[in-house]
Here is the input.
Amino acid sequence: MANLSLLDLGFVLFESDSTPLHISGLVMLTPPEGEEAEFGRRLVERLWASGPVEAPFNRVLDLSVTRLPRWRPAPAVDLGYHVRHSRLPGPGDQHQLLELISRIHSYRLDRSRPLWELWVIDGLASGEVALVVKIHHALADGVRAAQLFARCCAESPEQFTRPFWMGNDDTDVTALAKRESLLSGLLQSSGLVRRQIGASIGLAKLAGKLALNWLNLQPTRLKVPFTAPRTPFNISPDRARTVALADLPLRRFSRIAKLTGTTANDVMLTVCDMALQRYLQVHNWSSSKPLVALMPINLRRPGEEPVACNKITLGLVELGRSEDSPLVRLGSIRDGTEGVKQEALELSGDAYYQYSIIINALALTAGRLGLHHYLPPATNMLISNVPGPTRPLYFMGAQVSQMFPLSLLLPGQTLNITLLSYAGQMHFGLVCCRRSLPGFEAIADYLRDALTELEQATLQAVTEVVTRQSA
Here is the structure.
């Protein structure tokens, strides 16, 4: 049996019917020419006939009242249950597709079975076939889920591919063996004690910094927790979800980042912040305090092998004020993201990881118990950016045209925005509690408008600088 990491365990313990803690992905496939009518059915039949199902997709939760949950191998995996086929009725438009995806994303995965599903949806007027991959967050984070799907694709339609549950190499087994070997080594030596002592010292330093910042005695760029404004995004969600999608060229984000000396991630956060501020203004809400986003931070080092678990932490990033101009907002967000990363680097990885666990466990507990009505929010929404494949891919002969991420809603939050880059496009997946945010779908259009506005402000600033230098 395999133990769950502390973060994975949290995703299991805090899950409820109103806050299912899985992630999903929408993949749009363009079938080979002449095969549009039957491609969906044939794909399902091929997937049903595939096997064997390998770790971690053959694992189920082993639940007990006397100990913490663990993973154990399932006696058998019924692909007829996990791989599902649905056909849209006429006219097969995008609204119907989004309605079905919203329903699929709304319900919890069955804990008596391995915690994943794959839906194949055809009947679209465009001739495309949609895949909805649904995986519990305790099984994989967004980065790993994107890697798993990309690894089961090919760069040409003729190349052989197989589904993600079969595995394409021994990376998972090797990485898991290393992880278990490292854990055994720590438990059999003083390494675990030394790491915990280092983490405790780092936590004490971080607590001191936050206390001095709260007292205005020593400013720090790290956001003090539980000081976010209360917004319409901070309502406890019910079970029903709705989704919205947007995609924009990645080069536009990269060009702004290059001209302003920021990162593409800073630009994406700024565009999201501008779109959210416009939504709040349209619905007559305002605050003197900036929004605070919960941002996943990937703790994997460059070149580090992926492991069969999450390896992320969560940081609080203060966004711009409602009255800020686009470039001022971008500068504020750049300072905020750099502050989070700098603190994470200065502390030991264990210390920042444990700090993140404590803060988010408190926030989750408050949301689960309904205390978020009385306590200030720790954050207003979760915004994450997942790196995806850079080249066009093919899945079982069909071209992957688009990849949209759809993430979870935390207790006390009604909005999640997740971004995934694929083949030169940035795909936005927005998930919302169905009853909480009227006109939520407009945020997708506001994202496009915000990027154009930020582009214009950047080009105007660059033109002014060039004009002054040439004068």
User: Anything to note?
Assistant: The domain at 2-179 is CATH 3.30.559.10 (Chloramphenicol Acetyltransferase). Residues 373 and 381 are 16 Å apart (CA to CA). The radius of gyration is 23 Å. Residues 168-199, 306-310 have pLDDT under 50 and may be disordered.
